Amino acid sequence: xxxxxxxxxxTIENEDFVDFxxxxxxxxxxxxxxxxxNSIIVRSENSLSDVEDNINSLLETLGSDIKVSYKIxxxxxxxxxSSYQNSIEPIEVGKFYIYPSWYEAKEGKINIKxxxxxxxxxxxxxxxxxxxxxxxxxxxxxxxxxxxxxxxGILGLACRKLGATVELCDTDPISVDSCEKNFALNSxxxxxxxxxxxxxxxxxxxxxxxxxxxxxxxFIVEDLKRATKVGxxxxxSGILDxxxxxxxxxxxxxxxxxxxxxxxxxxxxxxxxx
Length: 274
Hints:
Elements: E1 4-12, H1 18-29, E2 33-35, E3 39-44, H2 49-62, E4 68-76, H3 80-87, E5 91-93, E6 96-99, E7 110-113, H4 126-138, E8 144-148, H5 154-161, E9 165-170, H6 173-185, E10 192-195, E11 205-211, H7 214-219, H8 221-227, E12 228-240, H9 244-250, E13 255-262, E14 265-271
Parallel strand pairs: 6-7, 8-9, 8-11, 9-10, 11-12
Antiparallel strand pairs: 1-3, 1-4, 2-3, 5-6, 12-14, 13-14
Helix pairs in contact: 4-5
């Protein structure tokens, strides 16, 4: 173990976006992060100089005016990785048991192994939790599923463990790599995995899942609707409650069959009726 490590503190003016950026940063940094009310702390034995650039690129791509500041320090190593791992506990969501590799699987549950120190999307975030809950209700073994913005691959893994055929995509190449590794960690296989979005999907799907953010969901509305077959289910998440009406307006041509809310985050389940 190296004697020193890097600590990057990211301060976000609007605390509503802390969880979203924390997911993104954890995926980039590949290490444990600490989340505060309006801050994210990233620690790594490797340089974190590219994290700031990646965040700024994301915000520019989204056209967002979120104000973010950065401070990086070099500190003495006190085995923070072990401390972080010890702070992460498994979580149960309906049929599913999500656990890091340093825990044991649970009998009687559908077990999904995810190491949150390696990628975001460990089930603890409200949007992931609600999506897993919806998957347990709407996905069966007979179905063909597309996970858009797959991140760690946790949602696609949940569908696969229910017996569905799964395709996944993400615009972030690091997410694609993390997804591939987590499928291998769980000894599961996907049908297709690509870097990109729903506009590259070749067919129609029984269930389409998009756990992203409201602005992106509005931007790719036609791609998601096109990918969902008539009679199929579309699960949308990553929606702050104050953005819900905007998303509902964009997807008004579909039938809303369920709404879930958890910690100010909303998940909408639609059926494509025509």
